């Protein structure tokens, strides 16, 4: 790989640029910036010293303060310091709850009373036991102290509030007990347990099916630490391909293969665990931002070390980069995502050709994963996709052949349908890029624009009938959680939009088609007519209907609203600028952020300008409804990190063009009133990219 990516990872890490991460106050409020001219909103100063997790040190920064600093704190005048020794052998559950464990085996008294899972660390090996390359015993408890004299201050997450037992707080409900069992094990430094991986030594294409499905064993046969097992299990039980904005996963790659592949490569393992920990932390009432940053930082550090050694790239290298890119997307950092994307392109074209990538299920998902980033960033940025057209056409041809061989296989039909829409999107990005660079005349642009209009409608009108099977249509919404108040603006649902599995992908594809048609219609060679604006508003309305029913239908798959977020983003620009619609949009953005998909500050700024309401810059809902301390911490961290990315990745920003400059929504008559919103040239693609 070229030196670009190593320098990129180092610039992300900011080697030596910040002191180690210390304890922060999750309740620090996010800065409420006023509506201002276009540009990046000011970053919160609360995270200016977060560099400990992105500093590229050989080993991740521990959460505790340096010993010298601790001793100064202990000897502060006026304080009678009482030293509390912490046992090494208490159970994980008591440690996570910050309560004293009586160390009764096999189940301690607190866990027995609370009906909790009681898991003890493995015994500390005797002196002289085998050490790993970092000098630490491989069987040492990941949460134990290395110093018998270390006290509570040396424990990570020292601010966690103890959870009372039944004898301490009467009436503890079964719900609370259940939620405790689903809590992660006590936090430990990601570097505390070396897993003795050989990064890149195993090629995913050579892995056996059993290896890919076994997520509990390392290649050398040693058991995974309990903390990593917890997050891998959480991943399997809660994360789907929809969380990756992938329409269909006919080979069960994300549900079955990825965690198995992760235990073959340490950097990939920590990237996957980091993603699972991030989503879990948002749902944890006592979660802290440190809980997932330790894993993310460990993955970046390992990947950087691997690249510096210039070892042979494998599928596992590529999957690590793609997983890190997904985390960047969730943090709203499309600038750094594009840095990962550039590296992924280099590895992808090194390992594969357009033909060979289709030969394995792993290769096919890698291509799907990558092209989703490629098409989206290219369309939003008005530049060509990084992958040539051949990669997209060979994908379509592959599934055309599979469909012909297996005419009853729905999964192949869905992949073919999705691949054709992605090909049209790629061609749209090519047109927008050539138009932005003025490489074609207005007449040539208009001709190609009209061709793509026909291609889009041909795609929609030539679906295989099996993808519209009326027997799988949802006509009874009695299982819906219901929509009231402003949500009723999208009721009732237009017939034929919602399909149950295995045709749920048809609903997703319909929504994506409407968003792409909306994007295409807004990028005409001339200003949109009243008729065109009416059609665009219809597309936006259908997107709202689909998103509303997906949210409220109780049988919607996990993560299915995440894949809708680009559709919601563009629909927000074309829905009527009336209070009920604006409040609906704000509720959807709030929900997406609570699910982990952070709206970047630039996006909030654009919506604030569109709605003429500066409160969007702080939070979407009145009185900070749903804006939890954990979410405030993540939002503040993401804002500062994105602001850093904007300054350090200026070359990427210079490539971004204003695709939304064509979306000049003037006071065009629509229905009974006027469309009051106006998007100026400044409302650019960076709304979704930054």
UniProtKB/TrEMBL annotation:
Localization (cell): Nucleus
Keywords carried by this UniProt record: DNA-binding, Nucleus, Transcription, Transcription regulation, Zinc
Transmembrane segments: none
Residues in Zn(2)-C6 fungal-type domain copies: 90-120
InterPro entries linked: Fun_TF, Zn2-C6_fun-type_DNA-bd_sf, Zn2Cys6_DnaBD
Biased composition (Acidic residues): 147-156
GO molecular function (one): zinc ion binding
Domain of life: Eukaryota
Gene3D superfamilies cross-referenced by the UniProt entry: Zn(2)-C6 fungal-type DNA-binding domain
Region (Disordered): 116-194
One GO cellular component term: nucleus
Compositional bias of kind Polar residues: 173-194
GO biological process, one term: positive regulation of transcription by RNA polymerase II
Signal peptide stretch: none
Protein name: Zn(2)-C6 fungal-type domain-containing protein
Organism this protein belongs to: Sordaria brevicollis
Lineage: Eukaryota, Fungi, Dikarya, Ascomycota, Pezizomycotina
């Amino acid at each position: 790989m070229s030196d670009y990516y190593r320098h990129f990872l180092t610039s992300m890490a900011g080697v030596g640029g910040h002191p180690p991460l210390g304890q922060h106050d999750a309740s620090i409020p996010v800065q409420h910036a006023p509506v201002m001219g276009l540009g990046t909103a000011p970053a919160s100063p609360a995270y200016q010293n977060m560099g400990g997790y992105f500093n590229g040190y050989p080993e991740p920064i521990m959460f505790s303060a340096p010993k010298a600093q601790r001793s100064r704190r202990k000897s502060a005048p006026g304080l009678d310091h009482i030293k509390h020794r912490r046992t090494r052998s208490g159970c994980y559950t008591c440690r996570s709850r910050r309560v004293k464990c009586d160390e009764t085996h096999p189940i301690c008294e607190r866990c027995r009373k609370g009906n909790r899972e009681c898991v003890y660390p493995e015994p500390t090996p005797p002196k002289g036991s085998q050490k790993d390359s970092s000098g630490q015993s491989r069987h040492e408890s990941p949460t134990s102290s290395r110093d018998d004299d270390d006290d509570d201050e040396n424990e990570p997450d020292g601010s966690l509030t103890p959870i009372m037992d039944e004898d301490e707080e009467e009436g503890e409900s079964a719900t609370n007990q259940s939620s405790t069992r689903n809590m992660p094990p006590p936090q430990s430094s990601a570097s505390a347990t070396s897993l003795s991986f050989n990064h890149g030594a195993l090629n995913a294409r050579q892995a056996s099916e059993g290896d890919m499905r076994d997520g509990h064993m390392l290649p050398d046969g040693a058991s995974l630490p309990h903390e990593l097992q917890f997050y891998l299990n959480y991943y399997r039980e809660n994360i789907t391909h929809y969380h990756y904005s992938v329409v269909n996963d006919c080979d069960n790659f994300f549900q079955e293969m990825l965690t198995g592949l992760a235990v073959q490569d340490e950097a990939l393992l920590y990237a996957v665990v980091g993603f699972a920990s991030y989503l879990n932390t948002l749902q944890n009432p006592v979660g802290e931002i440190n809980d997932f940053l330790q894993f993310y930082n460990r993955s970046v550090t390992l990947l950087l070390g691997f690249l510096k050694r210039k070892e042979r790239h494998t599928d596992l290298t590529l999957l690590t980069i793609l997983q890190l890119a997904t985390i960047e997307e969730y943090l709203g950092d499309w600038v750094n995502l594009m840095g990962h994307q550039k590296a992924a392109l280099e590895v992808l074209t090194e390992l594969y050709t357009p033909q060979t990538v289709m030969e394995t299920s792993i290769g096919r998902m890698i291509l799907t994963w990558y092209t989703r980033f490629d098409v989206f960033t290219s369309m939003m940025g008005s530049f060509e996709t990084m992958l040539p057209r051949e990669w997209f056409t060979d994908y379509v041809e592959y599934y055309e052949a599979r469909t012909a061989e297996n005419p009853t296989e729905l999964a192949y039909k869905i992949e073919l349908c999705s691949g054709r829409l992605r090909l049209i999107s790629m061609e749209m990005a090519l047109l927008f890029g050539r138009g932005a660079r003025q490489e074609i005349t207005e007449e040539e642009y208009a001709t190609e624009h009209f061709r793509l209009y026909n291609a889009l409608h041909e795609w929609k009108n030539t679906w295989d009938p099996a993808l519209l099977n009326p027997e799988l249509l949802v006509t009874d919404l009695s299982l819906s959680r219901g929509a009231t108040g402003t949500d009723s603006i999208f009721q009732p649902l237009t017939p034929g939009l919602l399909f149950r599995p295995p045709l749920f992908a048809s609903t997703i594809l319909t929504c994506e088609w409407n968003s792409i048609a909306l994007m295409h219609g807004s990028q005409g060679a001339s200003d949109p007519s009243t008729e065109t604006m009416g059609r665009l508003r219809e597309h936006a309305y259908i997107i709202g209907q689909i998103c509303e029913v997906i949210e409220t239908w109780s049988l919607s798959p996990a993560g299915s609203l995440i894949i809708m977020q680009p559709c919601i983003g563009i629909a927000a620009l074309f829905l009527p600028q009336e209070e009920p619609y604006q409040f609906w949009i704000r509720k959807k953005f709030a929900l997406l952020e609570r699910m982990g998909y952070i709206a970047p500050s630039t996006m909030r700024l654009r919506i604030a300008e569109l709605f003429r309401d500066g409160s969007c810059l702080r939070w979407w809902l009145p009185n900070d409804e749903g804006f939890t301390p954990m979410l405030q911490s993540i939002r503040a961290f993401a804002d500062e990190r994105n602001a850093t990315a904007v300054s350090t990745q200026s070359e990427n920003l210079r490539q971004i063009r204003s695709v939304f400059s064509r979306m000049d929504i003037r006071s065009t008559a629509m229905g009974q009133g006027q469309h009051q919103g106006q998007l100026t040239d400044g409302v650019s693609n960076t709304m979704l990219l930054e």
